[in-house]
Structure formats: C-alpha cells, structure tokens
Amino acid sequence: MTTISKGANTSLPGGVGRVLVQLGWSGGIDLDASALLLTASGKVRNDADFVFYNQPRSAEGSVTHQGKVGTRDSLQIDLAALPAEIETVAIAASTDGTAIGQATGLHLLVSDPGGAELVRFDITDASSETAFVFGELYRRQGAWKFRAVGQGWTSGLAGLATDYGISVDDEPAPAAAAAAPSPSMAPPSGAPMSSAPPPAGPPVTSAPPPSAGAINMNKAVRLDKQLAGQPPQMVNLVKKAGISLEKKGLSEHRARVALCLDISGSMHQLYKSGKVQALCERVLGMAVQFDDDGACDVFTFGTGGYDEGPLDLRNYQGWVQQLLGRRQLEGGTNYNHAMQAVRRHYFPDGGGGQRNSPRPDKLPVYVMFVTDGQTTDQHGTKQQVEWSSYEPLFWQFMAIGQSSRNVTASGAPPMKKKKGGFGARLASMLTGDFQFLEELDDMPGRYIDNADFFSVADPADIGDDQLYDLMMNEYPGWLQQARSKGLLPG
Whole-model pTM above 0.70? Predict the structure, then answer.
C-alpha cells in the first residue's frame, strides 16, 4: 500500500479495472461520501454525474454509492466502464453543517476488488469546511492515477455543487461568494504540491454561469441547509426516506404530506411509550424529502377531527408531549371527521364534502393515516374515500394491531384472510382484524384507486427502511393514474 500526503499523486497498479474508495473516520461527526464524474473541463455533464446517498448510481452504473456502515462510507468505481469523456472522478463528502475539522481519524482508502489496500491518504488539516474534496481518480495517457486533494468549502454542498458546474438557483449569490476554501488551503485550481500535472478541479473564485447541460441541485442544497444542526437520528431518517424514493424513481418528486393520528383511548400505551413520537419523526423524514417547506401537516381524530398544525424540523422534538398537553385522548374512533378535515385543508373549495368530477391541482397530497381501531362511521368514511378519488390525494392507511395484512421485520408474507360466516367475522373483530380498511383498499366505484393499507402489530417492530418502502408501495402507481386522469400535470 502507498501512503501519500496532500497534493501528491500515485499511479494505480496496471490492470486494476475496479476500485473501492472508502472514506473513514473514528468519531466526532458524521460524513456523507459522494462522487462527481468530470470531463476535461472539470465540470459534470448532467445530474447523473453526481453520485451520493440520494442518487446512489451514475447513469451507466460505473460509479455506485455502497452505503454507510458505522464510521465508513464507500463508493465503488468501475474505471473500465467510465464513459470515454470522463477524465476525473472527484471523491467528496459533506456534513450536516458541522465542521469537518471536528472529525477524528479522517482518512481515505483506495482498495482493489480483492480488498488489498492500494492507496491511503490521511487528512489532518481540515478545519471549518462543511464540504470537502478528498481526492481524485484521474486518467493520464490511458492509465489511472490517484491524487490527494484535501480542499474544501465552508459553504457546504452549495459551494461544492456550484464550482463543479451544477446550477443552484437557491440563493446563488451567497453560495458563489462562500465557495472559496478556507485560507489554509490552496484553491482547487491551484497546482498540487508535486510535479504532477495540475488537477482537473475547477476554480473557486466565481460561480460559472448555468449552461444548458447544468443540473438543478436545489433539493440537495435545500436538504443540506434544512438538516444543518439536526441530530444524526433525524438526518439518517431523511436519508433513508430519500433512498426509498430513489428506488421508486421519485427522488425529485414533490408532494404535500399530512399525518392523521388516532387519539382514541386505546392508543394510550403507544403514546406513553414514545412509539407515536418515533412514528411522527419517521413520517417527518419523508415529508422533508417531499415538501420544500420540510413540514408535515398533522390531523388527529377520536370522536371528532382536529387540525393540529404543522410538524417540522423546528418543533418535532417533544411534539407528542405538547399534543397531549392540549388534547385529551377520546372515547371513540371516527375516520370520517379527520378525512373531511384533511380534504377541507387542501381543497377548501369543496369543503370536504361530496365531489363527483375531477378537481386537478399542481401538487399531490400524500396522507399517512394511523389508527389502532375500527371507525364508528363506515358509511361516511367510504364516502370520503370515494369523493377524494376525484382529488389528487392519496390515503396510506397504517393499522396498529392484527390483520390479514400484517407485516413483520422479517418481511414475512401477510397472513391469509379469515373466511367463514358470522362466527368467523366476530372472531376477526375480537382479534382486531381491520377488515374494513382492507375493503377500503379494494373499494369499487372510485374515480381512481386512491388508497393502500398495511398493518403492523407494533410500529417499533419494523425498521425505517421497511416502513418507507411500505409507504411507497402503491403511491407511484397512483401518481401515474392521477396524471393520466388529469388530476395532476402530465
């Protein structure tokens, strides 16, 4: 293995077509590795040339984000499969706003497919930067070399993105002005501290004008700003939600998000144990990905239905405790009142009442509806589902208890539906089976299928990744229907 210092470069062994690049640290902060595929101009070609946790694969698959394990984040790069016009792969990282200099044991390793370490670069002089280019794999006369760069931006992801040719429309002037690296570091356009050819990295003195091929990094920059200073747990939830959306092709999708919470008395233990608070935070992780304002509108229902206002990154900590301080658990469960409140909130022209013709809008509404009991007004609930099928609104029902569609952490298939006469149906009710919600999922007479349903015995039993995948089970298909039926722009 070759150990090199900042500014130095070394050749990779001949015949190495694929490498694993690992960014590691021993503690202090959390980092997210990324890669930028650069042409001879030192710029990306399009959005597929930026690979990170929210877009884990380049267009042709030559660069993939392998994911984080503890204090190590990895990228796999198939050098032989890189497009001919790509001359450099810059290895970068960003934080949630914490200075990279707070990381201990920060280093970069380049290994071959067999795990043999080829190059190691220890980073010892990082300071206030929140985005950093650690090194570059670059092509010279048909061979691949590695250069230790070690230069960064105090302006975070926005500064890094702008300098590599990515169009950032969100507050462009401050991002450009702050893009210069810290005084202790040479600018990326400066010559490396060796006899090697100058790096292909771009200058940082000013932001390049957006070109026709420039990409829009507004969402990535928005998330970078919104998550600055957030606890690692919330940052990880947002990232996991993003990965689930990327798998469904929805990484750039926008939607308004609502959460309907059951406040009937039977939910007491779930509230007391902190499981409802944890669920709220998990849904908020998806809302931050979906909605530019990073907020989730919350509605509660017991015997009545109530608009509780937004849940966001500023107020989510201790939110359930505050809710219970102003709202007592109630002695009944009526879905209808909450559903009417949701529809009235987003589509006030209909008042939450009957609708039998399409009502289009620019943005969809995704509703996470959580309950542990049956509604006392099945007829009214069916009407709400039917009427809302003419609106760009999707209901994701999640039941807490036992049903024929229970999911488990192991991913085991759901139980089969119970069959039989009145005795079997009575037994089903006594064991908490949510047969009515299953019927809503498959209910005929709607403009489009606008609901999905799953159940869990305990929300703490399933992981974040599994929950987000379940939340996205039928939503992408509904989006296609909503567009084809004119409820959303095509």
Answer: no
